[in-house]
Amino acid sequence: MNNVFGQRRVYYNNFAEHLLNAYNPNMTHAGLPYCWSDRDWTALIEMLEAFGYNVFQYWLTPRLFCREGVTGEFGRKFTRQINFITEQAHRHNLKVEFLCSLSTVGSDWHTLCPGIPSEWEECRYLWREWLSRLPGTDIVGIFPGDPGACSRHGCTALTFIDRANEIAALVKQHLPHAQIDLGTWGPPIFGWGIIQGPEGWKGEFVQAYQHTAWQFDKKRADETMVHLLKRLPDFPSDTIVSINLGFNPDGIPNGDQDARPWARQIAAANPIQTWDFSLTEGENAILPHYRFQRLFEQRRRERDAAPYSGGICYTMTPKLNQLSLYEAAQSFIRPDDDYNEIAREFYRQVFGPGTEELVEHLPLFEIIKDWGNHLTIDLSREDFHRRMNRLSELLRGLENRLASTIPFFPTPETYRQELLFFAEMFAMLSGPAPDYDQLARQYWQRVYAIYDQLPAHVDPRPQQAVRKIIDFFRTWKGAALPQDQGPANGQWV
Ligand SMILES: [Zn+2]
Fold first, then answer.
1. d(Cα 306, Cα 55) in Å, to the nearest integer?
2. Could you report the per-residue pLDDT of 318-332, keeping only the tens digit for each?
3. Residues in the chain with pLDDT < 70?
4. Ligand 1 centroid – CA 211 distance (Å)
5. What whole-number distance in Å separates Cα of residue 166 and Cα of residue 163?
């Protein structure tokens, strides 16, 4: 029985360098804001256990997966911290998984080519180094990219599978007890053989070409999955395959992009899980999320499909979206339950009884259409403004209620203050004559201040995410909602 539905409930915290914010741990820039103490991490893990998680997953980001990461002080600090987290996770019945792109290295997200012997040797070196530094790891995820993928020197999705097999053997040499998680993220296998670059391209990350990594082609998808099924017996027998319901960024199983027939074939021999990034938060607007209708619907589809043994519950804001984390874990445990009732139950546990009305207003934050947000909210600007004021009032009334009956990180009171910040911010933004530029600065200061102390990153996502929120309110007049602003940065289609 490889696949008992929902048994693998994976907290996936992406704290990569382009997703830094006040609600995410800063793991690689000591001395700058948002670093967490050992005590913070212990409290987070206690909360995760109470919420129902049994795997802690993180991305060994390209900033770490490079020579500088191996030799630098920040790499040493990271290693100490993550080994401490691993110890705590084990104490609380969570396994630990690190994900790593097969060959994407460095702060500039450069992808090395497995077809060039010296570059592949460098990849193997980096894998060996990190495997030896993280001895407590239970699961090693080998990941095609995003960012990063190779189409130089004849590399294809098949190359990724074959080279991942080599790395799986390396993992077994260093960590014989560890399980492999083979990622198929993308259309499938993000970018391999299809990502394009400018004239003379040598694998650098070039944002203008990222969308080419998502080009879907049925023939390519079929060949890739046939090859994966053929090679899978060459991987350790308990290898997990991460495969979403659909070969697109939101995991939608429509038409030729329906991945379920392949998932079923894989599930006959191996554990499968989803790696659906879009369900809880997407990767762009930072606000309190409430996307649970689709989350629960997708869970039931996963159960019906194969079934899936579990999947990731993604976050880049664990200090803000505790409700999403709770709902996501519970969606694997009780997929037929009412998500609104689960939310009310959550607030009863965190803030005490009489807090149910919060749940009526929280979905309104999902007014910003971006990655994974399929919610439609139909309100006039005036009604929206009124509801945000009401939510602010409710939250002010909960000051120091402090009755949490469930382990909670950081504290119910900090959480209340953050929700209040967002409610007041959205109330001001939807007010009669907002000072948009001033509010944009205020939002930036609260959420993204760390970037004022860092050199510009290759991915300008934080700036774009703020602009998108502000522009939404700037263009929202009266009853009509602004037209869908198109795919968000990060959703490459
Ligand atoms: Zn290549």
1. 21
2. 999 999 999 999 999
3. 1, 402, 483-493
4. 18
5. 5
DSSP letter (8 states) at residue 434: -
Quote the ligand 1 centre to 37 CA distance (angstroms).
Answer: 40
Q: How many domains would you assign to the chain?
A: 2
Same domain, 206 and 240: yes
Instruction: Please indicate, yes or no, if residue 486 is contained in any of the structural domains.
Output: no
* Residue 343: both structure tokens together: 């939310």
Question: Ligand 1 centroid to 155 CA: how many Å?
Answer: 4
Question: Which residue, chain included where needed, has tokens 């939310």?
Answer: 343
CA distance 44 to 24: 12
The Cα 229–Cα 188 span in angstroms is 14
Query: Is 489 domain-assigned?
Result: no
Return the sign of the alpha-carbon dihedral for residues 448, 452, 457, 462.
positive
209 and 127, same structural domain? yes
Q: Does some domain include residue 481? A: no
pLDDT digits (tens, 9 = 90+) for 369-388: 888 999 888 899 999 999 99
Domain around 96 = 8-344
Tokens found for residue 105: 């290295």
| Spatial distance between the Cα atoms of 280 and 334, rounded to a whole number of angstroms | 17
CA of 192 from ligand 1 middle (Å) equals 8
pLDDT of residue 488: 46
- If you measure from the C-alpha of residue 105 to the centroid of ligand 1, how many angstroms do you get, rounded to a whole number? 14
CA 435 to ligand 1 center in whole angstroms: 50
Cut 0.70: pTM above it: yes
d(CA 381, CA 479): 6
Distance 159 CA to ligand 1 centre (A): 8
Asked whether residue 122 falls in the same domain as residue 246, the answer is yes
Neighbouring-strand partners of residue 98: 58, 140
User: How far is the centre of ligand 1, averaged over its atoms, from the C-alpha of 153 (Å)?
Assistant: 5
**Distance between Cα 289 and ligand 1 center (Å):** 38
Residue 58, pLDDT score: 98
